[in-house]
Design brief:
35% of the residues lie in helices and 18% in strands. It is α/β, with parallel strands linked by helices. The chain has a single domain, classed as Vaccinia Virus protein VP39 (Rossmann fold, 3-Layer(aba) Sandwich), CATH 3.40.50. The strands form 2 sheets. Strands 3-6-5-4-7-8-10-9 form an 8-stranded mixed β-sheet, sandwiched between helices. Strands 1-2 form a two-stranded antiparallel sheet. The radius of gyration is 19 Å and the shape is globular. Bound molecules: S-adenosylmethionine (SAM). S-adenosylmethionine (SAM) binds next to α1.
Length: 320
């Protein structure tokens, strides 16, 4: 098994001290790395343990038995968001994907001299990610940790991606504060959460599913008809999740402001007309009425696939 050779990017989840051979130099706690994946997780609350158990049954987004690196790259490249993200991240960046699940996005981004670390609460998901990285010859590394007490070094990463995760934590606003500290000053945060408006069509589908057992008009389920593991992962994630919150652009702007993060833009854009060429460039999409109307329009454009949007920010030099 590959060891985690960049221990300087890890930290003690209890006291944030540095680790040497997975022993905290400050509080002396010793950690282990079964199967080459450091276990940097502390005992947690019942709601988080519920989420962990939930994803252990069907790791998300799941792996297809026919997956290859070419297939994974082709699938990711069909997503405009993944393409823009790949284009915006420098070729030698240190990238952290928090809540990476089975690791597909990180594996797609781990090209050239980029260093990609994937972290998640769910060991079964990380084991699938580790095996796929080994099978595809991709040099990504994985850590088991809770992003609210992360076993990762603060101020260390050029880019921190956390997509589809915070809205499954008991207190997403507090969880964001912990995520923000992991980016270096000047580093970029990409935060994907369910949008309060764009999620409405899915809530309707979910209500029908709970009444009838039928998930109507779900394009993702249709597309995954021949991939049982990925279909099951989507069905559970979208229709049976025990912990879900929804957020607006204004809310994320508030979280950013509270944590010394400058808001750069959203994806999709909260401006009418046109998507960005550069996902990390500042946008003028801060006029509240236009942002509100855009989010209402996302019911049509994002509603079919769960209603996830991303907000991008840059950690200020003087941030806490
Ligand atoms: C919906 S999946 C998203 C996976 C991946 N980001 C994607 O977009 O395909 C949510 C992931 O977040 C992880 N997760 C939930 N709460 C977490 C926490 N407190 N710390 C770390 N990971 C967490 C889950 O284990 C799960 O793998």
């Amino acid at each position: 098994m590959p060891s985690f050779e960049r221990e300087d990017l890890l930290a003690c989840p209890r006291c944030a001290g540095p680790l040497r051979a997975l022993r905290c130099e400050a509080c002396q706690l010793q950690y282990q790395a079964p199967g080459g994946i450091p276990d940097l997780r502390l005992p947690s609350d019942a709601r988080t343990e519920g989420v962990r158990a939930f994803y252990a049954r069907a790791p998300f987004p799941g792996v297809s038995p026919r997956d290859s690196l070419a297939a994974l790259r082709a699938r990711a490249a069909r997503s405009p968001f993944a393409r823009l993200l790949d284009a915006a991240i420098p070729g030698d960046a240190q990238v952290l994907e928090l809540g990476c699940g089975t690791g597909q996005l990180g594996l797609f981004l781990a090209t050239g001299d980029r260093l990609v670390v994937g972290a998640d609460l769910s060991r079964p998901a990380l084991e699938l990610a580790r095996d796929a990285a080994a099978q595809f010859g991709v040099g990504a590394r994985f850590v088991e940790t809770d992003l609210r007490a992360p076993g990762l070094r603060r101020d260390a990463f050029d880019v921190v991606i956390c997509s589809g995760v915070l809205h499954h934590t008991p207190d997403p606003r507090a969880a964001f504060a912990s995520v923000a500290r992991l980016a270096r000053p000047g580093g970029v945060l990409v935060i994907g959460v369910y949008n309060a408006f764009a999620r409405l069509p899915q809530l309707l589908r979910r209500a029908v599913f709970r009444l009838t057992g039928i998930a109507p008009f779900d394009p993702v389920l249709r597309e995954r008809a021949a991939e049982p593991a990925r279909r099951e992962a989507w069905l559970r994630d979208q229709y049976l999740h025990p912990e879900e919150h929804r957020h607006t652009v204004a809310e994320l702007q508030t979280w950013f402001g509270e944590n010394g993060v400058e808001y750069l833009r959203c994806f999709p854009s909260a401006l009418f007309g046109g998507e960005p060429d550069d996902l990390f460039a500042r946008s003028a999409d801060t006029w509240a009425p236009e942002s509100l109307l855009s989010q209402l329009s996302w019911m049509g454009t994002l509603g079919g696939e769960g209603g996830l949007f991303a907000a991008v920010g840059m950690r200020r030099d003087e941030s806490p």
